[in-house]
């Protein structure tokens, strides 16, 4: 694609003209490699979010006294509760002290939580460790997409930010295959080893953290414009000497950041009321709430947190097959999400989002019907179709990469996260646990209603309120 189609004509005219690919330019190669550090934050989240699912095998449930119903839901929801507890302060800390210190504190908290979790001796201790994981995970996940958006090269920003949640599945892959490798262990190490590996991605981030630059936008907001310009000059223009790196691109970027910050300071309405002060802000807030809530109220909780028990309902009960399906599903998810991230600049996020919801609807309808047939008649072909629908459902779920906004919309980012975590808690703590323990028939009606919800609200509703941001760049 042409630069004008990606970043707009105004910014494209000051981009350096070159025939080289980005990996042939040392400064861009260095920048993109360093951005892998915050990009791995979603891998941390992916491992943390998926590591519990394999615990729901027979041995792990027995070790923790067979939690059922709401208690089982609370085990899964503890991470979301920890995330909600961190939300009131993480945004303020990222603005007050910078993106890097908050990210570093989150990495350290995850490592500490891993120690607690891997040494747990009872269910309360395990739940507390999950609370710490959720709390620290928010310190990792919240500043990372902002740091990426504020550091990335203009023509790379859309792909990089859209790929943020793609690497979630790298963590899920490590988690699922670690569990697959430990499936034959009939001791507590069957779950302690995956718990220990939870610190893997944070340790990788910690090793390279010192070389990651701070956000130029935060530096300018902190009246450290010279430092911000030097970072942009080095990583966007390739200048080792900041005095020689003030190219038209760097000057334009600094000017845009300064102008945006000044406009924010002059705004009459501040605080949370700014979210509903104007028609534009009200619509942006509505989108933030809908995207956050719909991220969980679409059936994903069934697959994400109770895959083992879903497979049990269609006759797949042996641990080997269950962990194998889980591992293959995560590899499939990573490929689908990565492909969608590269389609963002071509198709736009709105198109991908609506395509995703329509595909999820179709998959869920077939899944519900075949699950009913399998339950009533024991039909093996129907059970196979249910497993296939897990993959098609996830394929379309993965096709909706969400661009995490940078600082001008930090409050809407928080609103989205709050909506996601709250709906996650109620979905996995209140609804799904009952459905997976012998109540499939009673749950089938609500599940079917949920498919209608996806069709009527998510597909049609989002078609009305979403607008395309393709080609738009805002700092």
TrEMBL record:
Q: Which GO terms describe its cellular component?
A: membrane
Where is this protein chiefly located?
membrane
**Pfam families on file:** Sugar_tr
Q: Which PROSITE patterns match?
A: MFS, SUGAR_TRANSPORT_1
The record lists the membrane-crossing segments as 101-117, 123-141, 162-180, 192-212, 286-307, 327-344, 381-397, 409-428
ATP-binding as a keyword?
no
Topologically, how does it sit relative to the membrane?
Multi-pass membrane protein
Q: Where in the cell is it found?
A: Membrane
Q: Does the keyword Transmembrane apply?
A: yes
GO MF terms on file? Answer: carbohydrate:proton symporter activity
UniProt cross-references to SUPFAM superfamilies, sorted A to Z: MFS general substrate transporter (SSF103473)
This protein's superkingdom? Eukaryota
Q: Which UniProt keywords apply?
A: Membrane, Transmembrane, Transmembrane helix, Transport
Which parts of the sequence belong to the Major facilitator superfamily (MFS) profile domain?
34-475
What protein family does this chain belong to?
Belongs to the major facilitator superfamily. Sugar transporter (TC 2.A.1.1) family.
Q: What is this protein called?
A: Major facilitator superfamily (MFS) profile domain-containing protein
């Amino acid at each position: 694609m042409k630069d004008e189609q990606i970043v707009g004509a105004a910014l494209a005219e000051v981009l350096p003209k070159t025939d080289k690919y980005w990996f042939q330019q040392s400064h861009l190669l260095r920048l993109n490699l360093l951005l892998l550090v915050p990009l791995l934050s979603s891998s941390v989240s992916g491992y943390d979010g998926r590591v519990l699912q394999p615990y729901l095998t027979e041995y792990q449930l027995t070790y923790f006294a067979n939690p059922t119903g709401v208690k089982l839901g609370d085990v899964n929801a503890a991470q979301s509760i920890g995330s909600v507890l961190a939300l009131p302060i993480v945004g303020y800390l990222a603005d007050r002290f910078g993106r890097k210190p908050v990210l570093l504190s989150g990495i350290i908290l995850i490592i500490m939580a891993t120690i607690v979790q891997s040494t747990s001796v009872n269910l309360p201790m395990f739940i507390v460790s999950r609370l710490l994981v959720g709390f620290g995970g928010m310190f990792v996940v919240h500043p990372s997409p902002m740091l990426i958006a504020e550091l990335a090269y203009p023509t790379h920003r859309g792909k990089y930010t859209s790929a943020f949640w793609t690497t979630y599945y790298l963590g899920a892959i490590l988690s699922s295959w670690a569990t697959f490798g430990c499936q034959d262990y009939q001791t507590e190490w069957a779950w302690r080893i995956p718990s220990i590996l939870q610190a893997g991605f944070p340790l990788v981030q910690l090793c390279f953290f010192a070389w990651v630059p701070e956000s130029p936008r935060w530096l300018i907001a902190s009246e450290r414009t010279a430092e911000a310009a030097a970072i942009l000059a080095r990583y966007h223009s390739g200048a080792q000497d900041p005095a020689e790196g003030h190219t038209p691109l760097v000057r334009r970027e600094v000017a845009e950041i300064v102008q945006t910050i000044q406009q924010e300071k002059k705004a009459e309405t501040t605080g949370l009321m700014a979210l509903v002060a104007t028609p534009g802000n009200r619509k942006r807030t509505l989108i933030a709430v809908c995207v956050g809530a719909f991220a969980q109220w679409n059936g994903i909780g069934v697959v994400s947190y109770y895959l083992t028990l879903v497979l049990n309902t269609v006759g797949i009960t042996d641990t080997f097959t269950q962990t194998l399906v889980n591992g293959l599903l995560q590899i499939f998810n990573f490929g689908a999400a990565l492909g969608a991230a590269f389609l963002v600049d071509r198709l736009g996020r709105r198109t991908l989002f609506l395509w995703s919801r329509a595909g999820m609807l179709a998959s869920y309808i077939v899944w519900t019907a075949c699950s009913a047939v399998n339950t009533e008649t024991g039909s093996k072909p129907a059970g196979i179709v249910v497993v296939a629908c897990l993959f098609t459902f996830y394929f379309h779920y993965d096709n909706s990469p969400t661009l995490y906004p940078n600082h001008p919309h930090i409050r809407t980012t928080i609103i989205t996260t709050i909506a996601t975590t709250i709906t996650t808690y109620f979905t996995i703590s209140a609804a799904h646990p009952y459905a997976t323990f012998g109540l499939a028939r009673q749950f089938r009606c609500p599940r079917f209603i949920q498919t209608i919800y996806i069709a009527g609200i998510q597909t049609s509703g989002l078609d009305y309120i979403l607008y395309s941001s393709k080609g738009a760049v805002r700092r």
